[in-house]
Amino acid sequence: MLAQQAKEPVLLYGNHSPICFKSEFQIAKDSLPEDLSDYSVIYIFSTANNKLDQNDLERLVDYVEKGGNLYVGAENWPLQSEFNLISNFLFKKECYGNFSATDAQSGESGRLELDELERIPAGKSTTSIPLDPNLKVEAWIEDHPLIMSGLIGGGKLVLDGGYSRFYCSYLSKDAEAVWIHIQQFFLVGSDDTD
User: Fold this and answer.
1) Helices (runs of H) and strands (runs of E) counted in the chain
2) Which has the higher per-residue pLDDT, 193 or 25?
3) pTM surpassing 0.85?
4) What angle do CA 25, 26, 31 make, to 5 degrees?
5) Rounded CA gap, 67 and 37, in Å?
6) What distance lies between CA 49 and its chain's CA centroid?
7) In terms of C-beta density within 10 A (0-12 exposed, 13-18 middle, 19 or more buried), how is residue 180 classed?
């Protein structure tokens, strides 16, 4: 089970049931609560059937701009609906492709410091994220971005094209290390402005 380091409520939304979490602080919801400010991190694991509307998108962006932390994961089609909606809203881009490589390579000097890891599991069936000047590539699959991070207003964003690495059925020490690095990025202040 993946340990949750945050000491404040963490929201899990979407396809969270196969994800390995172990925390008294996690709260799983099938819809976004009215008040997002109660959560230290919001994790969205994309489904095939998006339930987010325009108001939800605006509230998520407001949450991040005001200092919130947002993780949005996707997998190969069809587990991309929330991811594509959010990334299209923010960057006018959607994920693409179907990659079956088992390992990813770290990006250089990323915010998540994944270059410290010996191995970065890609996920079971991954997709890629289009490059954007507002995001840093944290991990590559083949020559396509798999994990990216960004700073939006006062908050932080992680986009991940291979969240199945966190499924209980595929979980490994390497995947747990990726998870810990994502949490550390969210929990530690940043003076990185690029």
Assistant:
1) 3, 13
2) 25
3) yes
4) 140
5) 9
6) 18
7) middle
User: Hey, which CATH number is domain 2-187, 3.40.640.10, 3.40.50.880, 3.30.460.30, 3.30.420.360?
Assistant: 3.40.50.880
Residue bearing tokens 């940043």: 190
Distance CA 186, CA 180 (A): 10
CA pair distance 116, 157, nearest whole angstrom: 20
- The 3-class SS string of 8-75 reads CCEEEEECCCCECEECCCEEEECCCCCCCCCCCEEEEECCCCCCCCHHHHHHHHHHHHCCCEEEEECC
Tokens representing 172? 């490994």
Please name the amino acid found at residue 131. L
Question: Strand pairing partners for 148?
Answer: 137, 159
C-alpha–C-alpha distance, residues 46 and 58, integer Å: 18
Cα–Cα distance between 107 and 116 in angstroms, integer?
A: 11
Count of Cβ atoms closer than 10 Å to residue 118 Cβ: 7
Tokens encoding 113: 């410091």
The pLDDT tens digits of the residues spanning 154-171 come to 999 999 999 999 999 988
Among the listed residues 83, 96, 71, the one whose alpha carbon sits nearest the alpha carbon of residue 46? 83
